[in-house]
């Protein structure tokens, strides 16, 4: 039997390794000194500078809109692909479809970015568009997010008993209505998880976005990377603190909602 104190100590070290840098970053966002490691008095000047930084605000707006649009469309495509792979066991191109879905999961981001860049350049020469920008970003993000949605939904859909839909159709429901009233409600948590995963992947992507975008469309990770190359500025610390706070509050609220939901069901 493993030693509990040793296991607890190892767990605490892992947690400290993950979260102590975040605490240092948060502390630096309130530091009046612009130099890391040099501490002055508490200040909110860097948050004021962040609010007035139009480049970061514009990139944040683009990243949020891009992530929401990519996740939503990828959810539709990935769910349809998962239904096809689970419900239709034999059709021409099934193996090819499964391989195309799984390929982005194992393909390096830099290879994906290069191939999509070559595709968009070739399309621009042959058809005169699309020009690299927000639209090509959306196409690329939707493409790799669809793979994650399909895998997530497929795993949940394969466990759903088909007899539930058949019972609904025996009661007079049409096939589409039976699917919506039964299976779609069962796999709803998987759909939500897939959308959130796609949203996070799109919001966080840097490598692929760097290849497929143009000068008029810059995402937040690209702006942060360009600024960090010259040294971590206090504005970036303030931005990271805001993101960390929003995500933490969101997780706490969602956990509380889940706890109340389970208590009400039991």
Structure summarized in a few sentences:
By secondary structure, the chain is an all-alpha fold. The protein contains twelve helices and no strands.
Given as residue ranges, the uncertain stretches (5+ residues, pLDDT < 50) are none
Share of helix, binned: over 70%
Amino- and carboxy-terminal Cα gap = 34 Å
Mean pLDDT over the full residue set: 86
What does this molecule look like?
The chain has 266 residues and is mostly helical. It has a domain at 55-231: Orthogonal Bundle (MetI-like fold), CATH 1.10.3720.10. It is 78% helix and 0% strand. The protein contains twelve helices and no strands. The chain has helices at residues 4-29, 45-51, 54-87, 94-106, 109-127, 134-157, 163-170, 175-186, 188-204, 207-212, 220-228, 234-265. α3 (54-87) packs parallel to α6 and α3 (54-87) packs across α9. The longest helix is centred in the first third of the chain and has 34 residues, at 54-87. The protein is globular. The relative contact order is 0.13. The mean pLDDT is 86.
